[in-house]
Protein 1
Amino acid sequence: MSVTGGGIKVFSGSSHPELAGLIAKRLGQPLGKATVTRNESGESIVRIAESVREHDCYIINTSCVCPTPTGQAASPNTSLMELLIMIHACKTASAKRITAVIPHFFYARQDKKDKSRAPITAKLIANMLENAGCDHVITMDLHASQIQGFFDVPVDNLYAEPAALQYIREMVDVNKAVIVSPDAGGAKRATSLADRLELDFALFHKERKRANEVSRMVLVGNVEGKTAILVDDMADTCGTLELAAQQLVEYGAERVLAIVTHGILSGPALERISKSRLEKLIVTNTLPQSQNRARCSKIEEIDISHVLAETIRRSHYGESVSVLFNQIPYDTAQPYRHEHHLLNDDNAEDSYARTGVSRPASRGMSPSQSRQKFPPSPYTLPDPPAAQNYFADHNPANSPSLADPQHHQQQQQQQQQQQQQQQQQQQQQQLHLNPAMPKPIHSNSAEDTPKAERYNPSPLRQNI
């Protein structure tokens, strides 16, 4: 197991500070000190306000078009420039390694030349990240997994499928469910989910007159009398979901839900969701959703910060990340999902009273709440202790022996005594086996150049 020397630093751009804060909290690390501002002409100004020399730096910024909690909508271009400048700033400040954490990748839909003279912008983004000094990329549910081939640096493409599986198992009657792909391109994603749930699946064939506008959809499969679960990687203007939900109801579906990884929800999306036959739209928090949830009661959010945090931890320590492709890192039965309608649902209270089943605790973002209320899922791994700092063991400043010199001296003496006893036992065994061997001359003199236990800070150094 290899650890990058110098420790870890987690920085956040301005696109999604809420997600960055959750990731840092799960890692037991404070967010790194950095300021991101803009001047009068709109240029981004970035300053890393602490030392990153020989550190493993993770910079979190997403392709953001959603309103932030402050109500301001950030442009994907602005978020991209912030990320590039922060990467370059860390690189020129002698960071050991720089990882770009991009939950929703920039320009992921422009991954091929589908028209004459059309640019492959996703390839351009890959080149820009590498030229800025990026050594590693972490992202989630790329629109086309082939985008990983645009990079010459390692790319970890994570999946939201384990979180979607757990949500479906808890919130949907799987005996009456069917997985539906809104288009042929998502058939692989839908079949993978259906196979793991042992469910049937259906798909739509859709025809477009122009971008973001679907003219006709034809269903292949049977959804009559079932709960139809639409699965996709992103929802932008939601025209596809609106039309698909209407078609599914006409084909006989009792309920229609939609689970997407990236809730872009631009333009008329919220209005379409509110008026559609969709019962719920479940999205992850790869993009900020606070304003969207406040404006549309059908939107529910699943937190995936634990997946990104565990990926960062494993990457820092040189551990395998592939286990996260099929499993949720912690017992995320309830604590990582927002709850909106259930807490205020009188029918839900009556249902709990009639059945005698204990009511689930709040499903807020805090991992310390309601964890013991639900049995662990076979698809999850054990949850670490709350507020655990994964990096404390490798930080000399956090060592109790250094904090207490007397305790450290006692430990050193005990170790020396144990080493001397082991040496004497080995020598006695050798003499017993070979009596002719001369006895060694013992020396109690100290080493000429003892190893320094800790470097004292220079009096000339100023804290940044």
Note: DSSP finds twelve helices and 14 strands in the chain.
Protein 2
Amino acid sequence: MFEAARIATAMINGCQICMNWQTKRDVSQMGIEKGVIDNGIAPDESFILKF
């Protein structure tokens, strides 16, 4: 749910960085180890491509 809301917000705001962001892939690069990435299964690439 988080990723869907995040993508929808990025689209509404027209933020290219946000639209290309994938939490599962990118958050660990920022040194973050806990948070929304622990809230269940992350969507796969096919989910993201639907947007």
Note: The first helix runs from residue 2 to 13.
Protein 3
Amino acid sequence: MAAGAETVSDQDKLFYCDTCSMLFLSEGDARAHESLSGHSTVQPAVAQA
């Protein structure tokens, strides 16, 4: 595997803010939203293809 390559499961982690109905593609984005807005984000179940 190439350096820096992510596994499929790493790419499929999505975070959702129930309050804003916004979806975040990375934990960093979700945590930044939490700290700026005071909302809490949750990681929904990952759909298996």
Note: The mean pLDDT is 78.
